Amino acid sequence: MKTYFVDVILPLAIAGTYTYRVPGEMNEVLAVGKRVVVQFGKTRVYSAVISKIHQTPPDRYQAKYLLDILDEHPVVTSEQLSLWDWIASYYLCQLGEVMQAALPSVLKLASETKIIAEEGEGKDRSQLDDREFLVMEALDLVPELRVNDIIKILGQKTILPVLKTLLDKGFIRISEEVVERYKPKKKTFVILNPIFDEPAAKKELLDSLERAYKQSDAVLSYLQMARTQEKISKAELLEQSACGSSAFAALVKKEVFILEEKVVSRLASPTETFLVDVTLSGIQQNACDDIKVGFKKKGISLLHGVTASGKTEIYIKLIQEALDRGETALYLLPEIALTTQIVERLRLHFGSAIGAYHSRLNENERAEIWKKVLHGEIKVVLGARSSVFLPFRNLGLVVVDEEHEVSYKQFDPSPRYQARDTAIYLGALHRSNVLLGSATPSLESYYNAKAGKYALIKLDQRYGNANLPDIEIVNLKAAQASSSVSPYFTSTLIKGIEQALKKKEQVILFQNRRGHTPMLLCATCGYSPRCIHCDVSLTYHKSSGRLHCHYCGFKESLIEVCPACGSTHIESKGFGTQRIEEELSMLLPEARIGRLDLDSTRTKNSFEKILDDFDEQRFDVLIGTQMVTKGLDFGKVSLIGIVNADSLINYPDFRAFERSFSMLAQVGGRAGRRDVQGKVIIQAYATTHRILEQVVSHDYEAMFQTEIVERKKFLYPPFFRLIRIDVKHKDPHLAADCAQRFARELRVHFGEQVLGPEPPLVGRIRNYYIQSILLKFSRASVSITKVKEVLKQNIVRYHLDKLNKGSRLTVDVDPY
Q1: Is 549 marked within a binding site?
Q2: What sequence ranges are listed for the domain Helicase C-terminal (predicted)?
Q3: Which of 99, 210, 246, 558 counts the most CB atoms within 10 A of its CB?
Q4: What is the pLDDT of residues 229-257, one digit of tens each?
Q5: Residue 531 is labelled as binding a ligand
Q6: Is 288 known to sit in a ligand binding site?
Q7: 243 assigned ligand-binding residue
Q8: From CA 583, how far away is CA 153, in angstroms rounded?
């Protein structure tokens, strides 16, 4: 019998894979991509994924045996493993971190600690204290206890000292049990006993139940439901008949009803399948044909189409063609809010063949979609950035809609990947076509298209020859000087809202800051409440009546008296979406106002509810953060108001102008998407800023040309690659020392390409002080692969240096 070894990926932040020996009886069921149970360390047990099977034992350590193989068939494909390798290599993270991000939690087994009494009679318990004695008494009654059980028995959370002394005294032993967390959803269905199939038997049954009214109602309700339904669940029958559980139980006992438990899907599926074909206009069809030519020549096409030009219909047509070829498709979107709206449009075309995948699904739902994609039951996946990790088979098309969006970037935790770039690599792995789409493409993508790396296709007209919105810039300073009715709304914007409401049209207001008041300030001494864990001011939220930190979640009560000087003169500075909602409801009390931001969408179906209410005109005005800028399509929206454009333009970031143009153009594009020309009112202090002028003239090309010159001059992407390294420590001086030492080491290799260290915009988060080092490398003259190899070696040396103990180091490739 051959002796096999497997390299496995563990869900831990450790370098590379780990090798285990395979027991001979498992040889026949080995396969790459299956999950296995392994022991790592002295006691911990994990589920890992097989990445390689071979016959070479490890050199440096004695290989432990696999404990178990969990799957009949692989749950991870070879293409996924290749993608994980690329992400770990490109984004300088560990393979286990990629596995943690990729697999739904329920597919990662947890080891659960069990406490068991040691065998042996006559152990003297007189030496035990009260808490230890309680644990042993409990173990006399049951064979084993879990940690949570002991917490309840002792009435305290700190139980490790108790367990340690019992372990040292030889009274207990501790073991780990691997627990499979995915549980299929089951539902109880009701079947009428076949002996009552004949009409005569049914009549006899009903006659026998003549005096048992509730039981008779249950049978009659079943017979009525059976005319239109193949399967009738117990819950549905109880609700329809209102017979009560006791009457139903009596019918089961009499064997009138037979109960059958079945596994059902957690995913909502449409009651009907509408396979509606999409008809493209002449302009759309030409663009679609050009995209397909681009696929043949380059493999990647960039569709630059103005807002409301009908890009979604082109995506649907291309997806349909991929399905007709027997392929699957991935449709990436940057926001969950957008996913919930577009999924209904796609269901009209693809029915139950489509599945949505995003972070608002619970873990069992995510696992179910994973398995359906793996088995080919879902042909079209519509999802946010994590969708790139799904186990696609025969992937023929990848669509990245709103490809410019910053939401595609994962900032924390590791892996800090860019979903757009990852999707491009995923397409290369599967040899599938990749389509990037946007009204305001990222400078990198547009530069790649201009340079011939991607095919560039333009859609310059709105669908149905609808006009682009008319954009007006209003001077906030002049409006406030002329004693406007509100410090937040100019008279121009208020009049625009009133006119829209009179015409029974809808309005979207954009303010890129949530909460009520971003900063409170003592007018006497200048004190401002700040987070005790982070270097940021606290934001007042009227809904909770408290001050919130948007970085760590810390909350404290609203101050009315300054804790520094005792003054009661506390002033509000700035405004968020809650303040805008409050102010508008005072100015226009008849308006029905909704709000779409992180605070109003915390529950699972809150996105869908707010968007549905707005779409069905239960709201007249929707106030939102950047969630409202991304691809939403409402036919009755005629006016867009940007409450304060300066906060976007003046952000200290080399992408600030690009992102300001993008956000303003995108939010403006929500207006006038049907017959009536839309109107956009931008309130700003810097009314002559070139970005605002370019937005007014809808001139993306001018913005690109001015920005690309600046990028080249100051050594930024797309001409240079950036890598940011953050050094964190709870002591500010040690954070600075560690960062300075590491920067010196890097300068030995990279010289002037190393900038910093210096504190970032927010220098402390969750009690960790931060120092940032920025590396810049020319795309044209520097091998980034060699750079990363050197960087990896230096990171290892950094962690080995005892002077750096207590610090954390994070690496972010393509950080902005």
Answers
A1: yes
A2: 557-716
A3: 99
A4: 878 888 888 878 878 888 888 888 888 88
A5: yes
A6: no
A7: no
A8: 53
